[in-house]
Amino acid sequence: MPRLYLSPPDVGSAEVEFVLEAFESNWVAPVGPQLDAFEHEFAEVVGSRHAVGVSSGTAALHLALRLAGVGPGDEVLCSTLTFIASAAPITYLGAKPVFIDSEAQSWNMDPAVVCEVIERKAKAGRTPKALVLVHLYGQSADIAPIKACCERYGVKLIEDAAEALGASYGETSPGSHGLFGIHSFNGNKIITTSGGGMLVTDDAELARQARFLATQARDPAAHYQHSTIGYNYRLSNICAAIGRGQLLRLAGKVTRRRDHYRGYQKAFAACQGIVMQPEASWGESTHWLSCLTINPTKAGATTDDVRLALEKLDIEARPIWKPLHLQPVFAGAEYHGGQVAEGLFAQGLCLPSGSGMSVDDRDRVIAGVKSALK
Ligand SMILES: *Cc1c(COP(=O)(O)O)cnc(C)c1O
Fold this sequence. Notes:
Oligomer: single chain
CATH class of the largest domain: Alpha Beta
Structural class: alpha/beta
Order of helices and strands: HHEHEHEHEHEEEHHHEEHHEEHEH
CATH architecture of the largest domain: 3-Layer(aba) Sandwich
Distance between the termini: 26 Å
Helix content: 25-40%
Low-confidence stretches: none
Number of helices: 13
Number of strands: 12
CATH topology of the largest domain: Aspartate Aminotransferase, domain 2
Mean pLDDT: 97
Radius of gyration: 21 Å
Bound molecules: pyridoxal-5'-phosphate
């Protein structure tokens, strides 16, 4: 039987047609009509006024932080329970990440903790410059209270929606509430361009500046003039063509992932000690990955026992993200909160969740998990 991966690409024929269009028009270039179309279509889908296609989600976040005015010595608040890419660009700019714990309801940044931190720092005259709010595994964070305290103290809100394309927060999309939102089209995300990302904003001038910085900051002159240092961060026209095809099937892809989550939930409902990542009352998750926690005393097996049992069956499973405040590279970084993220990391596991995965394959995963329990 073929190996089951956590979240492999899921491509179709529309992608091929858009890529052929790009080839036939000879637009095999870093920008072009496919990119323009992809940006417009994407902005429409997520409900942001402007979208700027870039080479990765990490690049999008780097641009967002720079345009939020983050610089050397500044503090930037960031969810601790996330992938390294949520925080790495903070350090590219010489700023300091300050990590914030999760709440148990959605596994995302705890509004009570972060608002208290913002208030205390503001009163001490050290207002953080920006806040990176992650929507973990496709579940929207509780944006409204966090946005309110950011606005009260002038902290720039940037949403990392890399895992949450197609999720909801009330009637809106996570990623469309901050000064900027970022998305990822890495090979393992909800949609892929083989590699790429998107920066979204409602501010036309900021979108213009993002395009400028992403194309080597070329001043308007024939002779290549530069007054600031930029980056080579634009998304290629070919990758954008793939993205257009993927975007057409976004709703179906999210439905498939949500079905996997419900399938797992049903299968494990009777298993002692297994709890799925909860879905918060404020929005539907994409369930980019179906995640659960395993209480070893009740389940009769540890998270690692289950992961290794699956590995023997050629099924990929991964622990949930190691909290960034526990990462060696961030040793000594400031952290606020309790042990929510640490507890989730100690017991959390992500199961195969790809939109191309069949029900039979999902049953294979379920049987594998159950075989490891007592
Ligand atoms: C994937 C991911 C990113 C980075 O996206 P890339 O396109 O791989 O650079 C950022 N944040 C989170 C939460 C992610 O999962």
